[in-house]
Design goal:
This protein has one helix at 2-9; strands spanning 22-23, 28-31, 36-39, 44-45, 50-53, 58-61, 66-67, 72-75, 78-81, 86-87, 92-94, 96-100, 105-112, 115-117, 122-123, 128-129, 134-135, 140-141, 146-147, 156-157. The protein contains one helix and 20 strands. By secondary structure, the chain is mostly beta strands. It is 5% helix and 38% strand. The chain has one domain (2-157): UDP N-Acetylglucosamine Acyltransferase, domain 1 (3 Solenoid), CATH 2.160.10.10.
Amino acid sequence: MRKKIFSELRKNEKSTIPNSTKIGNYTNCIISPDAYIYFGNKIDIRNNCNFVIGKKAELKIGDAVFMNNSCSINCLEKIEIGENTLFGEAVKIYDHNHQYSSEKVEQQQFNTSPIKIGKNCWLGSNVIVLKGVEIGDNSIIGAGCIIYKNIPASSVVINQQELVIKPL
């Protein structure tokens, strides 16, 4: 299974995938032959992760990045992830969304904008990063946050939701 993933990632001439890359079980890749993929050294990708890298899209992952189980990267333009960045379980990154009008949502037409995640960041479990976002170096994004605007370097982002408990 892992050999198949590595061969899929290395299919095109523009790919750089070092032998130090670790990929867990049940990881899936849908990669356009003309995509640009760069993986740094000592990347560790756990189980059940998904990668979609579209036509002429660029995915760059720096050294010593860790992705926990069930992470997903969907790249139709450009996504960069800085070195020493950690992903909790089920982190999702989308550099695009569907085009839409008042009449319909387009299934195969997208608006795209690059994403850049800095060095030494930690994205907690179930974080979603949307198109056009830049997360500065040394930032922490708390579990369950939806990141739709830029985050300055050395920031901590938390989702302040309140649990309301009522008796039956």
